[in-house]
Amino acid sequence: MFDFNLEQIIANLYQTIFTGIEFYFPKVVGAFVILLIGTFAAIGAYKFVIYLFKRFKIIELIDKLEIDFSEETQKEANLKTEKKWKEVVQKTPFSAKFSKKIKIDVIVGKSIGYYVFLIFFRYAIVVIGIEEVEQFLADLIAYLPSLFIWFVIGFFGIRFANFVYDVIYHALNLTKQKTAKIIASGAKIVILFFTLMAVLDKIGIATEITNTILTGFIAMLTIAGGLAFGLWGKDIAHEILESFRK
Questions:
Q1: In this predicted structure, what is the pLDDT of residue 179?
Q2: Is 239 within 8 Å of 179 (Cβ atoms)?
Q3: Domain harbouring 199, CATH code
């Protein structure tokens, strides 16, 4: 017969429960306090970033990177219609284009806020003692700065590509605006491609893959350029050279 002692089983069960509570309760309370502090720190970091954007007028500085080509666009409007010759086409600032969809200051502020919260959350996990989750969060926190640099490179790379497109398109005083548009688009694509290469490098894509993509892109441009000027690009080349001569 089995020696079945119900009182002893219940006593052992209560002892296990109270031992677990005694061991984990201080850790849970400590983790909760850390998360509470991290929440306030994240909110403070977010509001501080918003304040910096407003204090130093960073969005306005970014908008000033745009060039106003109202005079040139006026000429283009005159060529299309004589009725609208008094209209001046103004370039829409970047922040005005995307203010309804994204806000740069909010994105940057929330990103930094979440990053600060993740740091506190990791220490809360360390207090509780879950090593696997703590290691994952440590790797994530170490990787996020590279992701932020990727965002900055991509953002300003796109901005610079648009800037170069506008400069080239309006600087080339060609008879056919389509030719200037093709050249400006080509320069923009090249800048966007090298921006993509820099982003892939920061993300950590294998160097062999990026080198292969770069080699293929250069080969494609070489072949496409040779075929274009060899088959139908003589007139474009003549127009460009004639524009430089004048």
A1: 74
A2: yes
A3: 1.10.287
